[in-house]
Structure formats: C-alpha cells, structure tokens
C-alpha cells in the first residue's frame, strides 16, 4: 500500500508541476502579446498622427451646355468706298458724315469741262456721219436703179453700195462714242449705290479728282448698318460644336449689363493653318441703330456637350515625369494616384476626359512627395466645389 500511495503522490506532484508550468507559459505569452499589441497600437497611432492633413473636393460633372466667350469684330452688312468715275474738280458736295441717304441720292457733283467739250464734239461728229450716210444711201439707191439700163457698170454699183455701208457703220460708231461720253458726263453726279449712312467724307470743293480706285482718292464711304456682321475666330477645339443655328448673344462695352441676340449664319468649314482657328460669321439686327460697326464685342456661345467630362480644380493636378496625375482618397484613408487626361482648360478648373470616376474625392494642392498608399487625414469635411 505504501508503494501505491507513493506513486499517487508522484503523479499529483507531476500534475501540479505541469499545471504550474502551463500557467507560467500562459502568463508569459499574455505579457508578450500585450506588449506586441501595445507596440502595434502605438505604431499605428504614431503613423496616424504623422499623416499629413489634406483638403479634398468631390469630382463633379461638366454642364450639359457649355458657354464660351470669344472676341468678335463688328462690321456693317455692306461698306463701300465711293470713288469718282471721271476726272475733274469737285463742284459741290451735299452730304457729310452721319447723313442717312437713299439709293440714287446725290452725294456730290464733279465739274468736267474737258469731258463736256468732248461730248459736244462727238455729237457734232455724229451729225456729220448721219448726213454723209444719207447722201451715200441715196447715191447707192440711184446707181442700183440705173444698173439694168447699163448706164453704170457693175463696179460702180458695188462701189456705191460699199460706200453706203461704210457710212452707216460710221454712224453706229459715232453713236456709240456719244453714248460713252454721255455716261462719263453722267458720272459728274456721284450718287449713293444703296440706302445707308455716310461714315466718311474725304473731299472738298475745288479738289482735283482722278477717276478710279487705283489713282483717285476715296470721296465718301457708305455703310448699310441695319444689319451687322460679326466675325469670330473660334479655336479648333470648339470647331466641331459650332454650327449654324447655335444660340449666340453679344455684349458690348458701351452697353454694360445688356445682351443682344445674334444668329450664326455660316462658318468657313476649314481651319486656318496660320492660327488654327475657324472663321465664324454672325448677323445681328440693328434696325434701331444702337450698335456701331467697326468695334469689337464679346460673343457668348452656348454649345451642347456631346460627352460630359469630370471637372476638378486646377490645383489638384500633379505634374510627374510619368505624366499628369491626380491624388484621390480611398475609403481606407490612403492616397491613390491616378493617371488622367485633360480636356478643356477652364481657368481655375480643368476638364478630365479620362481617369476619374464620378463622386471621387480628389486632394487639393497635394504634397509633391505624395505616393499611392500614403495615409492622409482630411482636414475639413468634404466640400462640394461650386458649380
């Protein structure tokens, strides 16, 4: 029995020893795990506290209709320099700048004494030719009547007929010369070619006038201002969107706060290789005469957008050697750098045509050293950029 009791005692000692060893191991492992957990938490807190603060904004969509503003040159529908068609001296002028004239209205008279003398001479030459023609026709008729009696030869008849034809041609020639000189004398009267306004007068009484635009000086300048033409050089970027019928409005510096309607009537349908622009022509009604040709205007185009792009602030862009990047914030609070493709530059904003999804949060003015995976802290509540 003593051996049995002794064996049982040894077993109890072994059990108590094993339990004590296990307890020691458990306590030691708990302490080690607690220290590791504390160190990890401390490292996480340290990393979180050292993460940079950033300001973010949500990506927004571009509007369905885009408005662009371009400078335009304003011109009258018709603008004509008026020159003399005959040489002479200015006898008188009847209209000055700002005068509203009708088509055919007399603007000035030119005195042409030499031309008047030439007309009188040509009229006298015409009368002489007509008298000679009458004699030649009568002679030819008498010779033709005597030909059957053989009182005259065939050669005499032919000669009389030829002389009569020549005299008739001389009459026609002199008549044409008289008509030409009458027309030239008629150019002594300088008249308006259409209804309009005299915008310039460059002559005075007694001035020597040479005919034609190559040698003579401009007498008047006439403009039809009831309809204005506006010419715009549109950048190639917008060339495909600018079409006839587009909604257009005008703003003039002399009328602040007012808008004037215009109609897009045509484009050049070709890009100018010198400046990569498309020539656009507009028309605006000016029946009340409020607007003045020759100046400039702001042309506001409202163009439909075929594909709506993402819009972000320009200070969100990162210029990297590998290309343009934008830093976004993920749901885990870490930065993600994304490659983007820029569309239109809107000044303080830019369009992103590829690389960003809707409602993503982009970092404004990101640190130059930021990389994908860096933890960041949002400094303020996410703000929606103004539309």
Explain what you see:
The strands form 5 sheets. The chain has a 6-stranded antiparallel β-barrel with strand order 3-10-13-12-11-14. It has a 4-stranded antiparallel sheet with strand order 2-15-20-19, with no helix packed on it. It is built from 3 helices and 22 strands. With 387 residues, it is an alpha+beta fold. Helix 2 runs antiparallel to helix 3 (154-186). The chain has helices at 2-50, 113-146, 154-186, and strands at residues 53-58, 60-61, 65-82, 88-93, 100-101, 106-111, 189-191, 196-201, 208-209, 220-235, 247-251, 260-272, 277-285, 296-304, 310-313, 317-320, 323-329, 335-339, 341-345, 349-354, 361-364, 377-378. The N and C termini lie far apart (98 Å). Mean pLDDT is 83; it is low at 381-387. The protein has 4 domains: 1-50; 53-62 and 308-378, conserved putative lor/sdh protein from methanococcus maripaludis s2 fold; 82-191, Helix Hairpins; 224-304, Elongation Factor Tu (Ef-tu), domain 3, CATH 2.40.30. A hairpin with a 5-residue loop joins strand 17 and strand 18 (335-339). It is rod-shaped and about 190 Å long.
* Helix percent band: 25-40%
- Overall CATH class of the largest domain: Mainly Alpha
What structural class is derived from the secondary structure elements? alpha+beta
Number of strands: 22
Number of discrete domains? 4
Oligomeric state of shown chains: single chain
| Rg, alpha carbons | 49 Å
The overall pLDDT average reads 83
User: Could you spell the SSE succession in H and E letters?
Assistant: HEEEEEEHHEEEEEEEEEEEEEEEE
Strand residues, percent: 35-45%
What CATH calls the topology of the largest domain is: Helix Hairpins
Query: Order of strands side by side in the largest beta sheet?
Result: 3-10-13-12-11-14
Shape: rod-shaped
Low-confidence stretches: 381-387
CA-CA gap between termini: 98 Å
Give the CATH superfamily of the largest domain: Helix hairpin bin
* Tally of DSSP helical segments: 3
Largest sheet: 6 strands, antiparallel, barrel
Looking at the overall shape, the CATH architecture of the largest domain is Orthogonal Bundle
């Amino acid at each position: 029995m003593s051996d049995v009791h002794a064996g049982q005692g040894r077993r109890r000692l072994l059990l108590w020893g094993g339990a004590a060893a296990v307890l020691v191991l458990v306590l030691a492992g708990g302490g080690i795990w607690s220290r590791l957990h504390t160190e990890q938490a401390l490292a996480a807190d340290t990393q979180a506290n050292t993460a940079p603060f950033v300001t973010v904004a949500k990506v927004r969509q571009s509007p369905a209709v885009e408005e662009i503003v371009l400078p335009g040159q304003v011109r009258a529908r018709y603008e004509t320099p008026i020159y003399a068609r005959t040489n002479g001296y200015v006898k008188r002028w009847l209209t000055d700048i700002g005068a509203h004239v009708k088509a055919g209205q007399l603007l000035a008279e030119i005195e042409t004494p030499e031309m008047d003398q030439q007309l009188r001479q040509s009229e006298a030459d015409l009368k002489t030719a007509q008298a000679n023609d009458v004699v030649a026709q009568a002679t030819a008729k008498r010779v033709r009547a005597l030909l059957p009696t053989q009182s005259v030869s065939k050669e005499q008849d032919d000669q009389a007929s030829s002389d009569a034809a020549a005299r008739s041609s001389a009459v026609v020639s002199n008549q044409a010369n008289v008509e030409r000189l009458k027309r030239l004398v008629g150019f002594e009267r300088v008249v308006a070619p259409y209804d309009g306004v005299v915008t310039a007068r460059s002559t005075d009484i007694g001035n020597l006038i040479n005919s034609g635009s190559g040698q003579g000086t401009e007498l008047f300048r006439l403009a039809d201002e009831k309809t204005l033409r506006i010419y715009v050089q549109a950048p190639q970027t917008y060339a495909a969107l600018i079409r006839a019928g587009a909604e257009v409005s005008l703003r003039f510096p002399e009328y602040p706060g007012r808008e004037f309607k215009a109609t897009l009537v045509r484009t050049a349908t070709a890009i100018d290789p010198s400046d990569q622009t498309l020539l656009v022509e507009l028309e605006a009604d000016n029946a009340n005469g409020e607007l003045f040709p020759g100046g400039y205007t702001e042309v506001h185009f409202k163009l439909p957008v075929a594909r709506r792009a993402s819009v972000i602030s320009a200070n969100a862009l990162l210029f990297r050697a590998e290309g343009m990047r934008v830093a976004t914030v993920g749901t885990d609070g870490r930065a993600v750098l994304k490659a983007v493709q820029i569309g239109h530059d809107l000044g303080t904003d830019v369009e992103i045509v590829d690389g960003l999804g809707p409602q993503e949060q982009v970092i404004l003015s990101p640190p130059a050293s930021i990389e994908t995976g860096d933890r960041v802290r949002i400094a303020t509540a996410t703000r929606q950029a103004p539309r």
